């Protein structure tokens, strides 16, 4: 071995160590603004918890749901969270299997969003239950013909695969943390030791890791499509105008990819700003994610055209009250705000390059996410308020649905929970994959293992 | 009815018991369901506690053998007296804004006169609510009745979303008079006591039917709106006059129809169109 070669190795080792230090920086630096942020999230979750205890005591009457609008904000939130979780499969599986390399630094962000959103979705659906104490009935008396049972099956399958897709690429990174985080408290080191599963970084281990990831990436795609398709069937399997639609499955999936892409953009913006990851999450990433958002929004626009234009053209009795309520009636302001601000305008703006710069793109994405939430509300509520038969002999308030403070705070809490999980995750594990980034920057396993 | 149940219960016990009981020598005469008079040693007699659940709830899931119940509503006779609604609300421990039965003011088109339409659960033969229930809490019996077991219901309200007739109600709060019903054993067929966080619905008064009586709402009507009976016997009885008529004739002669037939739900409730109305209501009569 020549001296020159040895020197080259040393330089590379140093470069790799710099990379590790930079990517693991969030684990070592906790400022007061982070503590305030966590405190704020805990406060929101605390309020939600208090409201939920109150709801348990007095019943679901603490919401504004009643016999006519019998589903409301919680179900809209559930559909929204399931939609958000779909982005995990888009970024980690679909883009990766298509050999699109630029998305690598975003895979972990997408996957932790997916996992956190799924947990939150599972919680909110329990919150919506009149008898959460009877949750076990589903496992004892479950009947396979109910779309709820299908949903439970596919959502939990998706959760397991998503956890694996989050965890498996983390193993080499955790092994690295075991080496570099000697100054951390014992419990944290113990977590790293257990989770790294004795990783040595051998060629054989990498081969197994790559193979299992590939299998999971293929498996997760049909499961991802099915979680949102089955969720749409909770509505489409009924006879009600507005829900009785054959395109609900793909319509929901398309909307999910749109809101998922927007959620990743918002998250990556704040991660980049907070932890100075400008070299890893570049302006080009925003540019490309912006294009992806345009693509997914266009697909969603196409489905919206089908979903609203076709029944509006026919004005079939039964459907017409629902459609008119959305287009020109009680819900028209909300409907058009969501359609224009949350879908059409973003498409128009984002085809212009300057709007795909980080800040404008982030702001547009926030609007898309809010619009997507309100869209779920518009899918759930107006249909219930327009049943086939007239609503009579009920108090006036039964004709409307205005979520109560309690409902809103619990819903906000479910979103705050996701932010909390992501924020804490960033403090425990590298949010940008270390090994994958190193591999893509051309570091060999030899350098990585011996640094 | 009570005697029959008691005697058959005793016979089952004497047939199935493997343990030889100490006979007392004292014989008791009993009438069996086959109308035979039999003698049984008093040692084999055990009394059933009538204060417990009137029928075992697993029995309530099966339905009455040889029956398929049908309700016929003569819309021409309904004067919106609401005695049926009041009775229903009282019997089933419902709040005033909870309806197992709701009398609606209908107007089919611009140029037809409005009329009152009592609307129950339609006890569909293809019930959308039963299909979607994840835990088999709501079910369809062999006699056509759709019931809900509120000790099984998890409160997901999917059945409410699925029902095109808006026939179901939820206990959003602690039910009315919960304190009064605290020690009452749960009866699926009456769906009482109500439980917070569960769905409740019209039962066709299955508890009355088991006793061979007409449903509460049917007998409460002062205007002869309701006919109720067994489709297999092709006979229905008017709840007000007590007159029994041929079902098929009543339906064909009056051009009976079912609500939203095109949905394919196959209801067990038939409506006779509102001809010869005794009252033509003004729109705005109900607090809609």
Count all strands of chain A and give the number. 0
Name the structural class of chain B.
Answer: alpha+beta
Work out the helicity level of chain B. Answer: 10-25%
Strand content of chain A: under 5%
Describe the model.
The complex is a heterodimer of chains A (451) and B (288). Chain A is mainly α and 451 residues long. Helix content of chain A is 74%, strand content 0%. Chain A folds into two domains: 32-237 and 406-446, no CATH class; 238-259 and 285-392. The longest helix of chain A is centred in the middle third of the chain and has 34 residues, at 203-236. Chain A is globular and about 90 Å long. With 288 residues, chain B is α+β, with helices and mostly antiparallel strands. Chain B has seven helices and 13 strands. Chain B has helices at 2-16, 83-91, 128-132, 158-162, 206-210, 216-220, 247-253; strands at residues 27-31, 37-41, 69-74, 102-106, 115-119, 138-140, 146-148, 169-170, 199-200, 226-230, 235-238, 244-246, 269-272. In chain B, strand 10 and strand 11 (235-238) form a beta hairpin. Chain B starts with a helix and ends in a 16-residue tail after the last strand. Residues 1-18 of chain B have low confidence and may be disordered. The chains are: A mainly alpha (451), B alpha+beta (288).
